[in-house]
UniProtKB/TrEMBL annotation:
One of its GO terms (biological process) is mitochondrial electron transport, succinate to ubiquinone. The lineage of its organism: Eukaryota, Sar, Alveolata, Apicomplexa, Aconoidasida. GO terms for cellular component: mitochondrion. The keyword Cell cycle does not apply. The gene is PmlGA01_100036500. Pfam families: FAD_binding_2. This is FAD binding domain containing protein, putative. Keywords: Flavoprotein, Oxidoreductase. Residues 35-118 form the FAD-dependent oxidoreductase 2 FAD-binding domain. GO terms for molecular function: electron transfer activity; flavin adenine dinucleotide binding; succinate dehydrogenase (quinone) activity. It comes from the Eukaryota.
Length: 118
């Protein structure tokens, strides 16, 4: 197992060295080093980046969109919960809206759990 890991590391180093030696005339290539790279700047991604940075980790958060247009912000109704504190409300209605919003493709057991416990 350790021999395989060493071979893999050597292979990756060789592959990286081959590409890192290429010079671009259009712009300078700058290497970045991070303890963690988070893909996605939605609520979970940004929360993870915040917590890691609080614990002194060097973090990069990569998103295909500007963070204010991430899926969490652009979601159909934002982040909701059936509270029942102003009008009659029920977690089942919240679950139905969530399942319908996912075009019936969401994990219905997970959606039921999330809505019931919200």
């Amino acid at each position: 197992m350790i021999k395989n890991c060493k071979k893999y590391i050597q292979f990756m180093h060789t592959s990286y060295s081959r590409f890192s030696s290429l010079k671009s005339k259009a712009y300078d290539v700058i290497d970045h080093h991070y303890d963690a790279v988070i893909v996605g700047a939605g609520g979970a991604g940004l929360r993870s980046a915040l917590e890691l940075s609080k614990n002194k980790y060097k973090v990069a958060c990569i998103s295909k969109l500007f963070p204010t247009r991430s899926h969490t912000v652009a979601a159909q109704g934002g982040i909701n919960a059936a509270l029942g504190n102003m009008t009659e409300d029920d977690w089942r209605w919240h679950a139905y809206d969530t399942i319908k919003g996912s075009d019936w493709l969401g994990d219905q057991n997970a959606i039921h759990y999330m809505c019931r416990e919200a």
